[in-house]
Amino acid sequence: MATRSLFFFKVLLLFLALSDSFSATSNGQGVGINYGQIANNLPSPARVAVLLRSLNITRVKLYDADPNVLSSFSNSQVDFMIGLGNEFLQNMSADPTKAQSWIQQRLQPHIAKTRITSIVVGNEIFKTNDRVLISSLLPAMKAVYSALTNLGLEKQVTVTSAHSLDMLQTSYPPSSGSFRQEFIQFLQPLLDFHSQIKSPFLINAYPFFAYMDSPKEIPLEYVLFQPNQGMVDPNTNLHYDNMLFAQVDALYAAIKTLGHTDVEVRISETGWPSKGDENEIGATPENAALYNGNLLRLVQQRKGTPGKKSVPIDVYVFALFNENLKPGPTSERNYGLFYPDGKPVYNVGLQGYLPDIIYSSSASSIKNLNLWRALMGLAVAGLIGLDMGVKMRIPLVIGL
Ligand SMILES: *[C@@H]1O[C@H](CO)[C@@H](O)[C@H](O)[C@H]1NC(C)=O
Ligand SMILES: *[C@@H]1O[C@H](CO)[C@@H](O)[C@H](O)[C@H]1NC(C)=O
Predict the structure, then answer these.
(1) Which of 47, 139, 268, 346 can bridge 162 by disulfide, Cβ–Cβ 3.0-4.6 Å?
(2) Ligand 1 residue neighbourhood (C-beta within 6 Å)
């Protein structure tokens, strides 16, 4: 009996926590999140599905097309951007049937049940400075697009790529934004293709890097979306009070120099590390909480940039979890909102829970997930107890 009251008490807590986080995102399409998996200690995708559901996060970006993740999210409300890795581009560019088989093997088995809305072909290709790779990007995107068209999926699944902001030659003031000269021959036809197929241009933007390089010149408040006097673009008289918006408008300006005002910019990655090496100035949990917390508020308010006020910023935060196997400086392993055990790294007003489910049945994880959802629904409604031959440990509610 004692166990059961405790169960109901915890379910009640859980319910309250959920109502709270639901209301926090009830208007607008909400923030997306990057689900990176370069780690050996992450929870199973089925558990992550419950965590994301508790957070009311319905937009996820993957760096691959991991079948475990895609099948764990079948029949969920989550929209996926899946990744097609840089290693495939050269072959697909030379032989479009390779794109066809990738789509057949990676996308087709899941598309009926899992909401895959976009394929991100290559990540930060221009940053590699590899001419062969760079010149393979557009042909590979076209091959993927044709493969989708052959299946009648080209409207349902958009084709795009994600770029590093390094591709800009000039980003200040925003109205002077321009691309690096050596990339223009590739970017012109790339943007023409985006315009033709009406797909967004994705950018990975990290004001953290700019701040880390020049902490004396750049006010911390300006990069963290805190109150500050900001700056006025002398050409447009537009006022900027945060660097991310200035970066996005600089990209819009660069795109315009190539004749396009019809391609939307979206932010495929942005974030702030909670920990870094000694030279990674600003990488603290306090700053990460301010950056991501303030960013979430701007997304919820459906804020547009000064240059595109009517277009709400579209953001995928980097990242869901700290990833312990990422190479590079300490910051690389500390961008997560959550530790692998589901505890928040800092408070950004996102309450979630990661279930720790132990079942006596041998059902597959996906059935367990649906059973879990069904049980939670009934338990919340006060209709059932726990005596159903199911051994279940109720997770602690992660309060903030
Ligand atoms: C969850 O968020 C979506 C938008 O992301 C919103 O439409 C929906 O109403 C939210 N759910 C609840 C229960 O508030
Ligand atoms: C690309 O094609 C070559 C030759 O067919 C093959 O050996 C290689 O594994 C392919 N690369 C990928 C990533 O599929």
Answers:
(1) 268
(2) 22, 25-26, 29-30, 56, 58
Ligand 2: nearest atom to the Cα of 98:
14
Sign of CA dihedral 145, 150, 154, 158: negative
Q: How far apart are CA 13 and CA 276, in angstroms?
A: 35
Query: What is the chain's alpha carbon radius of gyration, rounded to the nearest angstrom?
Result: 22
- 158 token code pair: 């958009």
* 267 closest CA partner among 247, 253, 293: 247
Distance CA 62, CA 103 (A): 15
Sort strands 168-170 and 158-164 into parallel, antiparallel or unpaired.
unpaired
Q: Where are the alpha helices (DSSP H) in 167-213?
A: 184-197, 207-213
Count how many Cα atoms sit within 13 Å of the Cα of residue 56 in the half-sphere of its side chain. Answer: 20
pLDDT digits (tens, 9 = 90+) for 168-188: 999 999 999 999 999 999 999
Ligand 2 touching residue 91 (CB < 6 A):
yes
Q: Which atom of ligand 1 is nearest to the CA of 28?
A: 4
SS3 9: helix
- Summarised one tens digit per residue, pLDDT across range 222-256 is 999 999 999 999 999 999 999 999 999 999 999 99
Domains, in order of start, for the chain = 28-352 (3.20.20.80)
Q: Could you tell me which of 10, 24, 27, 36 has the C-alpha nearest to residue 350?
A: 24
Are 70 and 110 in contact by the 8 Å Cβ rule? The answer is yes
- Residue 137's identity, in one-letter code, is L
d(CA 361, CA 115) in angstroms, rounded, equals: 28
H-helix segments, 183-334: 184-197, 207-213, 220-223, 243-257, 285-300
Cα of 37 vs centre of ligand 2, distance in Å, is 24
**Mean pLDDT rounded to a whole number for the chain:** 87
Rounded to 5°, the CA angle 21-117-132 comes to: 120
